[in-house]
Amino acid sequence: MRLFNPEWEAIREFEHTATVRDLLFDLEGRELPADHGHALFEELARHLPWLRETPEAGLHPVHGAPSGRNANLVINRRVKLVLRLPLARLADARVLEGKTIDPGAGPLVIGPAKEKPLTPFPTLYAHSVDMGSSDEAGFLQAARAELDEMGIPGGLIPGRHWEMHTPNGVIGGYSLMLHDISLAQSITVQERGVGRHRGYGCGIFIPHKSIKEVGGG
Question: Which of 12, 40, 156, 216 is 20 to 30 A from 29, alpha carbon to alpha carbon?
Answer without folding.
Answer: 216
